[in-house]
Design goal:
Largest sheet: 3 strands, antiparallel
Radius of gyration: 13 Å
Oligomer: single chain
Number of strands: 6
Distance between the termini: 30 Å
Order of helices and strands: HEEEEEEHH
Length: 94
């Protein structure tokens, strides 16, 4: 997974109605950056370790469906088919 792939997922979640997003526990803001440095992906200049865990807060009745049918979900399915990237989407109604 590249930084552009992670950006696609995060932007897809924002577009799906996410109110807050974190990647490996690093909370994102409107000024956050997701970049690569060699083989590492950095979020706000902090290196992330695999596996990448993206957590979003939003309306549990709609965010999953909107994300999986939108560009973020389509991008993840393409990565899974082309490169074997594994992902899962889960909703916690709590």
């Amino acid at each position: 997974m590249l930084d552009a792939d992670l950006q696609l997922v995060v932007n897809g979640l924002w577009a799906s109605g996410a109110e807050a997003i974190a990647v490996n526990g690093v909370r994102l803001t409107s000024l956050s950056s997701i970049r690569s440095a060699g083989d590492a992906i950095l979020v706000d200049y902090r290196p992330l370790a695999r596996p990448y865990v993206v957590t979003a807060i939003g309306d549990p009745t709609s965010i999953e469906a909107r994300f999986t049918s939108g560009p973020g979900g389509r991008g993840l399915r393409t990565l899974a088919e082309a490169y074997g990237v594994r992902f899962s989407v889960a909703t916690d109604p709590a």
